[in-house]
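User:
Care to share a sequence and structure tokens?

Assistant:
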Amino acid sequence: MRGSRSGVDDRHRRMVDRTLSLNEGSITFPNFQVDSWYWQVYVNSRYFDNDKPLRDFTDDELQQLLYGTGPKDKTGDFSQSYEGLVAGHDGGQVIFEGPPAALAEATHSLTGQHLRKRLAG
């Protein structure tokens, strides 16, 4: 388990609902709803107690969820390397901080709406 940051950025904390567990849908970002492929990457990673509310995560667990990396593992019919919600997406691979041109128009729109709402609240 490796994290790439020494602290947790408040805007990144807003990507999750800390009152919920992973199994309850704590990842609030579009496409990460319970039972989605993206959600399965995190719950099948074996890094977390999936029934534990995020508010009870240790600093190391929260770091791993947001910024961590890990080995490739099977998720459904695909193999995927574990990448934290922020760390894996810095290069534009999936969503959060990647270049907007790499995002599908609908996902880009949802991304902007979601982050504006979460950052305002």
